[in-house]
Amino acid sequence: MDPRAYRVAQEFVRAHLRKAKYAPEFLQWTGQRKFRNPETGNEVKFLSLPDAEQRRIYDQWARKTRQAPEGGRGRAQRSEGDVERRNADIARNGTIVASEVLSEGGTSTESGPKKKGVNQSYIVKMRDGDQEQVYIRKPAEGEEKHLRLGIPAGTYHAREQAGYDLDRLLGGEGVVPTTITRGSDDGSYQVWVEGARAMHGEDLDDLVRKVKPEDLQRSPDFQRVNVLDAILGHQDRHRGNLLYHFEGEETPENLRFVAIDNGLSLASPGEHPGWISYDHPFGAFYIDDESATPDERQNAMMEAWDQGDRQVAKSLTSLSPEMQESLRKVDLGDAARAITAAGVDEEGAVRAALTRIAAFQADPDVFAMMLKRQGGDLDAAWQDFQHASGTDELLRLVGAQDKADDIRKAVEAAKPKRGWADPQHLDNYFRESEAAMQDLDAWGETKPAAAQPSDAGTRRTGPKPPEPQYDSWGFARQAVTVRDRWLRTAVRRTASSRGKPSRGRP
Prior knowledge:
About 45% of the residues lie in helices and about 10% in strands. It is α+β, with helices and mostly antiparallel strands.
């Protein structure tokens, strides 16, 4: 979700969300109750109370939740599970009673402007009987083609649900909101998480003031997000696709993440590791000083990206005992069934995801191996990890060749009734995506646009900084786009001769 889409969503749910201060579970609890305003004596909704009264009620709720005896905590957990099941049921069976466009794009025939490279999405309110909930809806017909190699358009919504299901298989508190797909004739529905804030603009600045990059490891969700993305092979986890909130006091220990937009994941690994994109949002943990010189701002940006890479690498190479246990408990058969039941029907994608899970189970230090053999380069290690999962190489590296038979059986048992989808062919891919590359006569002539920050609409004060004014997120996304387009062109040139493109970058 880009910044403009998020602002539209904020307006739509303004009646539900006044201030992003509280845990989603707490907002669910207060949503069913009214409270007496101590200043007027009237009964009002929680978010209409004075700030001091809101804090008093929240602190009381938090103490009861965290200090309840074991039996009481069990009842609380069942209650949260009931809410999750209710949200899933509404998504499956409910009807849309209100809708607002978030982004236009994709292949839809509906009228309105289309933004290429962006999938259609809507924020909708759904009703099932007397139950209502707000969701992000992504229609299958609105999925933009050719966003990533090995991930066919028309299946992104299925991968949204598969990401949710695999997150739940890890146990504990998940990071992906309840997500349900109604199939290829409809799309996916993901619960809108009240209280979550975007990792861009003023919301990101506020987070950076409270949590330093080195403190990210103290968040209960930081490692989980990175491990889940490694399993999914998530290729679009930019900072618009990860939200955050604090569960109680605004400290790193209470920092929670909400992993949204999981459609560009679970690719079938191709012949070349460079076909796999990698992006994470944790290199943006700095506040841009508009009074600094261009060189100072550039140095701050690069330092932040390096620091973010180090923290992500640390989370993937030093798995906590709890995370190791969660991974060991994942049944490969359950994982395969969850992926195919969601609608992902490419055998290579399922097999690769199971291979990545099995590698973590066999050796929690598997990503450390990839990082070492790539000279400490996080991007290259990520691509290597994903690419190696498409062959037996990853299992061989961790000495778990015996897992290959378990994976084969799990894949066979989860085979869709209609059979596996035909794999994507490069010739078809490049022929159909010709229009997407018409604006790239030669990769070397494409330059990032100056003085066009990607956080369009974000309030800024004071004079504009000197040129060049590169926004780190916008620059990075443009760089990835140029890289991907160059790579597709390079592969196309070699495809006719049946050769493989080289690893080198332009």
